[in-house]
Amino acid sequence: VSPPPGAGGAGGMEYPTLITTGADRLMLYPPFAWQAGIETVTVHELGHQYFQGMVATDEAERAWLDEGLVSWAEKRCMEDMLADGVAGRRLAAWVWGSDRLSMAFERTPLTIDRPSWTYRGIGDYFLASYTKTALALRTLEGLLGEDVMARAMRAYFVEHRFRHPGPDDLRAVLERVSDRDLGWFFDAVIHGDATPDWAVLAVRQRRIGSVEGMTWGG
User: What percentage of the chain carries pLDDT values higher than 70?
Assistant: First the structure.
């Protein structure tokens, strides 16, 4: 169901076998019209048919196992949709860019795995449960490989559908499928509030070769 403009309060919600998307009058005008807003919301809410629809975690206790897993899956799906031209509108084909930018401006520590009512406000809850979790899973995917991550997430869903899994269940599946100890990752990224400490590890330089091809304008 796509609520009409002006009925935004009914939009962006998941129910088993029924989802609502959402429209806004601003979406008629640039730059909002260039974004795949409706497509993104639709994919996100559809993803909830899996997490929490069939894999029913307690969103009040651990929202990240619901919203975070869906946010990661949403962006992976949008990457493919944009590449295939299914969602033609996008302000920039930089699916993870807005999340990275949001976290770059966050200056207070955020712990992903904590009850939703213990956050300082709705902003911190959203950043930790949606944004930071999606980026954490994308980082883990980069470490394990896309194929391993896909098999692990499928195994997690198949094994825990119609159950109420927790963080240890997700970690156990990821470790079994990847055959790697991920305790260090979960301790630092999921259960802790650590943030990356970027540093220059090495510097290289090389001589630039001759320019090949066509040049113009000097």
Answer: 94
- Is the pLDDT reported for residue 15 higher than 60? yes
What is d(CA 122, CA 206) in angstroms, rounded to the nearest whole number? 49
Contact criterion met (CB below 8 Å) for 149 and 141: yes
Per residue in 63-117, pLDDT (tens digit) is 999 999 999 999 999 988 888 877 766 554 578 888 888 888 887 889 999 999 9
pLDDT at 146 over 90: yes
The stretches of 36-166 forming alpha helices (DSSP H) are: 37-47, 67-84, 97-104, 122-126, 133-144, 146-160
Long-range contacts of 207-214 (CB under 8 A, 24+ apart): none
Q: Which position has the token pair 């949709």?
A: 81
Name the pLDDT band for 3 (thresholds 50, 70, 90).
Answer: confident
Residue corresponding to tokens 């084909």: 93
Phi-psi region of 158 (alpha: psi -120 to 50; beta: other; left: phi over 0): alpha
> Whole-angstrom Cα distance, residue 202 to residue 117?
43
Are the CB atoms for 71 and 48 separated by under 8 Å?
A: no
Round to whole Å and give the CA distance between 82 and 149.
21
pTM of the predicted model, to two decimals?
Answer: 0.85
Is a pLDDT exceeding 80 seen at residue 196?
Answer: no
